[in-house]
Fold this sequence. Notes:
This protein has one domain: Alpha-Beta Complex (Spore Coat Polysaccharide Biosynthesis Protein SpsA, Chain A). It is globular. Helix 3 (61-74) runs parallel beside helix 5 and helix 4 (104-112) packs parallel to helix 5 (136-165). A 4-stranded mixed β-sheet has the order 1-3-2-4, with helices on both faces. The protein starts with 5 loop residues before the first helix and ends with a helix. The protein has helices at 6-16, 36-45, 61-74, 104-112, 136-165; strands spanning 21-24, 50-55, 84-87, 117-122. It is α+β, with helices and mostly antiparallel strands.
Amino acid sequence: MRRVGQTWGLLTGIKIARYPVVVTLDVDLENPPELIPSLLKVFMRKRLDLLVASRTIIPRISERLASKTIGRIVSVRDVYSNFRVYRRDLFKDYEPVLGETFGGELLIYAWIRGFKIGEYVYEPPPRRSKPRIGGSIKANTRIFIVNMKLLMYLIYKGISSNILKY
């Protein structure tokens, strides 16, 4: 089986889910599953389409940069947190266009489409010493590249969709 990346994995899981609300989290339990009931309460109470559980401490410099740029635009502190709650039907007809973006493209797509996005801030548990996507240089390089792809996509799609609204 060919590896297709985290973005496709998240999207596939969302699309095949049985229920109208889907919670995604990292399998390595760096996202505390005991927060799921609180996330669902906020999601339902605020009638959101997408809720991002943002970490108070973002480990990589490249992820912090994304939060300062992309995150500021879409009003989320943690662009690459995939500890999220989605309305399942948000992406029923969507196919990623940017390749692997560690879930970032899904957040950008939701923002461009005007979906109601909320945020739940939490204190993350201690992080493992070895990151999933390689050492710190490799991980930061990959995320910097993804940041550039997302920014270009956001500028192109976001500006063009906002121009068409007026």
